[in-house]
Design brief:
The protein has 192 residues and is an alpha+beta fold. The strands form 3 sheets. The chain has a 6-stranded mixed beta sheet. It has a 6-stranded mixed beta sheet with strand order 9-8-7-12-11-10. A 3-stranded antiparallel beta sheet has the order 13-14-15, covered by helices on one side. Helix 2 packs across helix 3. The termini are far apart.
């Protein structure tokens, strides 16, 4: 469906398509869909996890949650909201998810770190959900975690500091780092 046939693409228009695709609670198979690109839709996700449409924050958390279910990262290096009939390029300032909650259980080799996004997706750090820290242009740490399907999450500062409190000195890849263990894996939180 082209923009001309349906009128302007709005969050409400997208929401109705997403709701029809996610009736059973499972994530829609966005990796199987190859719809045409719908141009000139101004949507973005700010570094703090706020979603914007035409430079206005999207205030409805349910709408943001539903949009997050149809996010996809393609080989062209762009993020998209995808339905079976259209896809919309969405600007992402840092990572499409913000990690706002953390729980730790167990200890030693059995320690598990559970993380949750601001949109309610929960998972355990481990082989499938790797944690790492990059540095931005100013040298400040940017702690990230793989959430799902080539999509990453930025750890909120409070979550990152809580992980640092759990960290232990460890040599990883020949470098002395502060590291945390979860799901049988060690993850570097940065140089000592």
């Amino acid at each position: 469906m082209s923009k001309d046939e349906a009128g302007p693409v709005t969050p409400a228009h997208l929401l109705s398509r997403v709701q029809r695709q996610g009736q059973d609670g499972a994530l829609p198979p966005v990796h199987l869909w190859n719809p045409p690109l719908c141009e000139n839709v101004d949507m973005r996700i700010a570094r703090d996890g706020t979603w914007y449409y035409l430079d206005s924050p999207i205030g409805r958390s349910q709408m943001v949650r539903l949009f997050s279910r149809v996010l996809r990262y393609d080989d062209d290096g762009c993020h998209y909201l995808v339905t079976p009939v259209e896809k919309i390029r969405i600007k992402v300032e840092c990572a499409p998810f913000l990690i706002t909650q953390m729980q730790c259980s167990g200890s030693g080799d059995g320690q598990v770190i559970e993380l949750e996004t601001s949109t309610g997706e929960a998972f355990s750090c481990g082989a499938e959900h790797r944690l790492w820290v990059e540095c931005d242009a100013g040298g400040d740490p940017v702690p990230l975690v793989h959430v799902r399907s080539r999509l990453n999450g930025l750890l909120h500062r409070n979550v990152y500091y809580r992980l640092i409190e759990l960290g232990r000195p460890r040599r990883i890849d020949g470098e002395q780092v502060l590291a945390v263990r979860s799901g049988g894996e060690w993850f570097s939180l940065g140089r000592m």
